[in-house]
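Quick one: sequence plus flavin-adenine dinucleotide SMILES, need structure tokens.
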Amino acid sequence: MEVELPPELEELRRTARRFVERELEPWAEIIEQRGEVPTEVRALLAANGYLGMRVPETLGGGGLGLFAYCIALEELSRSHRVFTLFATNTSGNTPMAIARHGTADQQERYLKGLVTGRLSTAFALTEPEAGSDAAAIKTRAKKVEGGWVIDGQKHFISGGATADFVSVMAVTDPEKRARGGVTAFLVDRETPGFRVGRIDGTLGSDAVKLAELVFENCFVPDAAVLGRVGGGFALAMESLADGRLTMACTCIGSADRMLEMALAHAKDRQTFGKPLSSRQAIQWMLADSAVELSAARALTYETIRQVEAGANPGTGPSVCKLYCSEMADRVTDRAVQIHGGMGLIRGFPVERFYRDLRHYRIVEGASEIQRHLIARDLLGAAAT
Ligand SMILES: Cc1cc2nc3c(=O)[nH]c(=O)nc-3n(C[C@H](O)[C@H](O)[C@H](O)COP(=O)(O)OP(=O)(O)OC[C@H]3O[C@@H](n4cnc5c(N)ncnc54)[C@H](O)[C@@H]3O)c2cc1C
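Reply:
Sure thing.
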């Protein structure tokens, strides 16, 4: 089932698909082979307007609405996961946070650089003892004359090792903590007292690398506060809420590519004198993937429409993130099965997508946390 989109979104999709197929796709295998992202990739995305897509035009961005942004991400995710990570500026979407909450100075200093690809950033919320339970963060910022002193440690920060500046969540009022006691700070890479610690590689998307970030007696001026003092937890949750829908669309784009590849292989590959596509066992896998993909699209597009119309989508974004991340895993697993041994060969996209898509059931609110939010909404007070 095709979901009909307005003509301008279909045009945006076609433009993005051409760009991905002609210009980005050749970089996908290079990224895998080098184990890092070549500088040309960020420059290419910036030159074609794929960094800062949602940032208002008045601030130098693309000014796209949520739906258009999601369609563009869907197309980028048909190639390599790194492209969507760059387009959303890793997790947390720091450009949008600066566009919404930053001062004019912060917008001048950071936003232009992010949109043009001159600067990169990272979003630092998670700590060794605070992942799903983000409210348990311990990184502390104490008020001093003219600024704040930050002490603590973050880990698993995507792109943190190479970021020019990071957006860091720290406790500024231990009494209030997540209820008005956490503040967001923009910390430049060269700030004394801030250093990158251990670097972790990952199953899939290894080129991005996760970094431990260490803050030891790290002084930042008052001007480094993003938004209001005490508003950091709400700001982080706002960014992650946006991320649920963009991540759902990313999963849809990747699953779409996997179904497309599975279909092509099933028609092409002959066993026992007949194409795989003539076998019921294979047809059922293809049919199941098509059904789930259609359901994912219908669900996610409707939720995006509600958000764009200003309606409260309730737990809709959680439902989308949960369903789409699990759907993409199943569709990719079937694509591997239909490709047989070929589906496990390094350098072949199906094998790479299988590894990359496993991330989405864990990052930015794992499946269990989304289920918890959905059940809490269903059960109300009976949930506790
Ligand atoms: C590739 C990657 C990139 C990342 N990038 C970033 C980044 O850029 N910035 C950032 O701040 N963080 C980042 N993270 C951290 C990520 O957000 C956390 O890993 C995630 O929130 C899960 O936290 P955790 O790893 O501490 O797992 P835990 O919170 O320890 O959870 C472990 C498991 O238990 C489940 N669980 C937890 N609590 C409950 C419960 N109450 N009931 C039932 N099940 C539960 C979880 O769902 C999970 O399956 C990244 C992580 C990865 C792996």
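The chain has three domains: 7-120, 122-229, 234-383. The pocket of flavin-adenine dinucleotide is lined by residues 90-91, 122-126, 131-132, 156-158, 202, 210, 359, 362-364, 366, 368-369, 372 (CB under 6 Å).
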